[in-house]
Model the fold of this input.
Amino acid sequence: MPKIAKLWNKLANPKNIPRLFAVILGLLLIVGFIIPMGLNTDQIYIRPAPQSQMDAGLAIAPYDRGGEVLVSPGVTEAQYPENSKNLGWINSYMTPIAELLKALSPYFGTSICASPGGLIDEILYYTRGFDTILESSILMMAFIIASWLAINFTIDRKEERDIKEDVKRAIASSDRIANEVEESNRKAREKQAKKEFR
Amino acid sequence: MLIEDLGGNILGTIPLGDIVLYLNPLHLFLFVTILLFTALISISRTETQVEAMFGSLDENKVAVGLKEFKQRRFLAIICGIATAGAMITGDLFNFTLFMALIGIVNIGIVSAVKQVDVLNSAYQYGLIAMMCGLPLFGGAAIILAATGTLSLFELASIPANPMMIFGALVMLVGVAGESGIAPFFASKAEMFRTPGSPFILIIHLSSLFIIVRFVEILLTIL
Amino acid sequence: MVASVIPQFVPAFYSSMYTTALYGGLIVAFIGLIGIAMEKRDIQILILTDLVGLAMLIVVAAVGTDLSEALILPGLVVELAEIMAISEILISREMRKVDEGTSFTPMPLKIDMEIMTTAPNFIALILIAYGVFLSGFTGGAVAGGGIVIYVLSRKVRGLPIFVLDGVGAISGISWCLWIIGFIFFFLLPQYWLLSLFLAALGLLLKVASKIGLIGILMREEYGRK
Done:
């Protein structure tokens, strides 16, 4: 019984939780080695074999999915083609600069694909656009949190000092014995906190 | 299991390309409840903790400053909306992204506090949230590799195989860690020890709702 | 034509490599997780969690379709966002423990590189131009890097910095642009080209101004000294 009690106490300490989580997750991943794994060949958004488009000499090599700019749509195998009425048009679209680059050299495939239009943009903005909205919201929230902390605390610490002075004055005006008890209490708690978190 | 068996007949879908949000009575109930709660906290003010001081008749008030209050309210509303979105999403990867958004907003709600203890547990929870990226997205990717789709409608009709079960288990560990259930509760529970009650509560409520929804997803796909 | 561009099923190369890649990812993740379980110092754990995030990218990439390439971006961004927020919390916590005497950038940030004095404007311009061409998230990161280099170089050369208030507002407005573009995709499908540019440029502006914000924050810290 005392062992279980100790275990519960350990579980109540936040410092141990990431470690426990890491161990459990690591063990679960090891289980993955005894489970038969294999890629289902019937996927959506299939891409051609590596290097095959380079060997074929296509100008926007690994990302050529057919279609002509503003003339015919490219090939996009969406999950629900009926939900995306303009399927494939973004896929085949290229900006004028991208077309210029395409004419210049066959080695700019990745850059051209990253400019507006192209296959990745079709997935990121159109067929799975909601994912990208969430993703950019996550980035925005992270920046809000980080910059709020940075601006309000780590950079501007003047307010903090004022608060501390107020607290000092309040403590001084109150009963001296209570003050001492409070102080020693605080010290003891700090000591314990140090023990726990160091 | 078919979707109709679990939450009742589908009332409607919101098709956004490959990501199809769908509503059935269960989802509708969860969705409306969390939105109502979000509306309630968006118009409420924070509590003020009053501590009696030892040896005197004075009391020590721990209040939340206005700047901090605004920041927290904003993040709490975002957390409520994200939870509501996770209730009705019909795509596995979309669900994991909602989960990640809830996780980071939860950290944000408590990040503005002054207590070192609370900051410490927020940091520990943040570490778990970062590790959870692997089981959440990795688990979804394993299910994608095993079945070739991420849509819950398609996954519901595909019979489970060992690889899918493994992917779902990995995802389960991720959701458990990120929402702080069973053995991983401590870091999340310690984050609550700070004033600002209604905003702190949405952390708790969102994990509760997420767990209910994820169990439903598990039953659907397996 | 169509059949020649996209194969009907996943090419044999990808399906034969899948198990290897997945196992590789699992092993990397396992090493990282065991490291986290054994490590004592907080900052080391934070760095190790990045290794776990890397393993996640391997597992996602192992699928080897265009979809998995598109899914890598959200995964990467989530890891990036979380490590930024959490490291800021770590800094904040440590500062509250120590109370004062710590700097916003804990290490002495002395940028004494030749590149900062020779042609920084040109490099920043090239980066921003390339970022605008790329558009989207990648372009935003590149262009934001250009802005950071510009701000840094002006600081290193001792010149006054062009103060741009409301960089955060640009980011918020461009986020709305992107949302409008996304709604147009489904409500007004005939304007897909407009929606595409709204989305691409909205995301570009958003990410670039966010990363530019890092440069602005640095400036404030410099100004304080």
Remarks:
- The mean pLDDT of chain B is 85.
